[in-house]
Design brief:
The structure holds 2 protein chains of 2 kinds. Chain A is an all-alpha fold. Chain A has 15 helices and 2 strands. Chain A has a two-stranded antiparallel sheet. In chain A, helix 2 packs antiparallel against helix 10, helix 3 packs parallel to helix 5 and helix 4 runs antiparallel to helix 10. The longest helix of chain A is centred in the N-terminal third of the chain and has 27 residues. The two termini of chain A are 26 Å apart. Chain B has a domain of 166 residues: P-loop containing nucleotide triphosphate hydrolases (Rossmann fold), CATH 3.40.50. A 6-stranded mixed sheet of chain B has the order 6-7-8-3-9-10. In chain B, strands 2-1-4-5 form a 4-stranded antiparallel sheet, covered by helices on one side. The radius of gyration of chain B is 18 Å and the shape is globular. Classes of the chains: A mainly alpha, B alpha/beta. Chains A and B meet through helix 8, helix 9 and helix 10 of A and helix 2, helix 3 and helix 4 of B.
């Protein structure tokens, strides 16, 4: 599908709306939205790789962790300014992305997912035992430089980053490259049979996904100001990213964004009612029901809603 | 002048099973060759080796005089040989036009990003195999088997092959659809396309080929005109059950 004027109008409306939001909502809501923005970045990163090509990554916290740890160590231990540490963190994450790519050249499906999961667990173990003086070991790191002060500034920064990533990925995926990556997810053999090197395409998807994860991870740690390995390399964090992408609708850019906001606010609004881990049962049930009813996610529900509306009008 | 496709001494073993046994044949430019044999004779295995989806144990495959055995499948396609599959393999969630678009894509990420799709060529290819304008936006789930074969043909043609390998191109088609695909192949032959065609539908195959080779258990048992091959005793014994 090509680019249409209303696509740009919708993006323009969304961008304007998001930047005007601090005028009308509380700081508490803004803080929730900051988390939603970072979750959206991670979900977009996952979607560029897994939603498109069908190579389901269970190792995204590994990539996010590389980005977060690299910039945290560089700034806190070596006093390197963030202007340098963040780009270095992104490059390191992309190199790590190539490591994840290697198994994908030979395996796919559940085997690939398990290998990537092993990467996450490996990094979790490594940061605790290798140079804990740098990584902070099991306790992680605190007192990491933050980039903004106050909820509104944190919100503007995370929103700008998330929207910049979302719009650039949306434009990229609207090109023939996006079509080719989606085609890999549908039938990789047919893509090769159409004369395209799937290895090169997959490498591009892995690098792009890693770049976004690294960027998100680096900015996230400079928002939090601290880093805890148990929270970062956590299966719940991994599933939150995946479920956000699946709920919203994979192979779209807006889907993972919607999924991330839906999940973050759902969990936040459930907090007063269900303060413990029971909240995850509720979100799990909603995710399951939605996925059974509409595997293409919320985006497809919205699309169908609009189609039905326009049919109703023309009837 | 070198042959369009020259297969020499091709051998493929799967453990103790010899799937292709010292097979040699050549295909001249603009010629159409039928590859026939009973189920399990190894016809598709030959296709897979020519395309590089399977690597032969020994033997050579030359395309217009150039040895292509070391090339990957995408490289062979860029060199000018392309195939269709016995079971069509469309991209299920994409429209007919997008399916063809994948075949038209350059194997170059920068050009994929910065140059727009050639929608006019997509349309031309779709119409040339018998799709209508309305079909361009349809997805494979909405298409009948005959349409899926046409889509497979269009995507293969999009890679601009000089030699096309058609695998069981009539399987599962109605009489009308067979006639449609046959007309398409005939018109492409007139335009100079070189074909290697596998089909169990011998009456449909006969008018589409200049000559035929028959194989059994990976070994060539007859070669010549269609009638010579069909009258061959070994072919009748193996392929037609001695009829």
């Amino acid at each position: 599908m090509g680019l249409r004027w209303f696509h740009f109008a919708l993006w323009g409306g969304l961008i304007a709306g998001m930047f005007l939001l601090p005028q009308v909502v509380s700081n508490g809501t803004l803080r929730t939205m900051i988390f939603a923005n970072y979750l959206a970045i991670f979900a977009i990163s996952w979607d560029v790789l897994s939603g498109r090509t069908g190579y389901v990554s269970f190792g995204h916290p590994f990539l996010i962790g590389i980005g977060a740890y690299t910039t945290a160590i560089l700034t806190k231990r070596f006093d390197i300014p963030v202007e340098i540490s963040i780009p270095v963190a992104v490059v390191f994450t992309m190199i790590a992305g190539l490591l994840v790519l290697l198994p994908a050249l030979r395996i796919r499906g559940s085997y690939f997912a398990l290998v990537t999961l092993a990467f996450m667990e490996l990094l979790y173990q490594l940061v605790q035992v290798i140079r804990p003086d740098l990584t902070g070991g099991t306790r992680g790191m605190s007192g990491i430089q933050t980039l903004t002060r106050g909820a509104a500034n944190g919100y503007y920064l995370s929103t700008a980053l998330m929207l910049a990533i979302a719009v650039s990925m949306w434009l990229l995926m609207k090109t023939r490259l996006g079509t080719a990556l989606s085609a890999i997810g549908m039938n990789e053999e047919s893509v090769r049979g159409s004369g395209l090197s799937t290895t090169r395409l997959k490498a591009f998807a892995f690098l792009t996904s890693a770049m976004i994860a690294g960027l998100g991870g680096a900015f996230y740690v400079h928002y939090l100001g601290s880093l805890a390995p148990r929270a970062l390399f956590d299966i719940n964090f991994l599933f939150t990213i995946i479920v956000a992408a699946l709920l919203g609708g994979t192979s779209t850019i807006i889907g993972p964004m919607i999924g991330a906001f839906f999940m973050t606010f759902l969990l936040e609004y459930l907090r007063p009612v269900l303060p413990g881990a029971e909240r995850y049962f509720v979100y799990g049930a909603i995710a399951l029901l939605l996925y059974m009813y509409q595997p293409k996610g919320i985006v497809e529900l919205v699309k169908r809603g609009f189609k039905n509306l326009s049919k109703g009008r023309t009837a | 002048m070198s042959a369009a496709l020259q297969v020499s001494g091709l051998v493929k073993r799967f453990g103790g099973l010899v799937a292709t046994n010292d097979l040699s044949f050549s295909l001249n430019e603009g010629e159409s060759l039928g590859l026939i044999g009973p189920n399990g004779a190894g016809k598709t295995t030959v296709f897979s080796q020519i395309m590089g989806e399977l690597r032969q144990n020994s033997g050579t495959i030359e395309l217009f005089g150039k040895e292509i055995s070391a090339l990957s499948t995408p490289q062979r396609i860029r060199a000018g040989v392309s195939r269709t599959y016995q079971i069509p393999r469309p991209f299920g969630d994409m429209s007919v036009a997008e399916n063809i678009r994948v075949g038209l894509m350059p194997d170059d990420i920068r050009r994929m990003i910065f140059s727009p799709p050639d929608t006019e060529r997509e349309r031309e290819l779709a119409l040339s195999v018998g799709f209508s304008e309305e079909d361009l936006d349809r997805t494979p789930t909405e298409l009948a088997m005959g349409d899926l074969r046409k889509l497979e043909m269009a995507r293969t043609m999009a890679t601009a092959p000089k030699v096309m390998l058609l695998d069981e191109v009539f399987a599962g088609l109605t009489t009308g659809e067979i006639a449609q695909i046959s007309d398409l192949i005939q018109s492409m032959r007139k335009d100079g396309m070189t074909f290697l065609i596998v089909s169990h539908d011998l009456p449909a195959l006969e008018p589409l080929i200049d000559r035929a080779i028959a194989i059994e258990r990976g070994t060539m048992i007859a070669e010549g005109s269609f009638s010579d091959v069909m009258n061959d005793k070994a072919v009748q014994a193996s392929y037609l059950g001695g009829a």
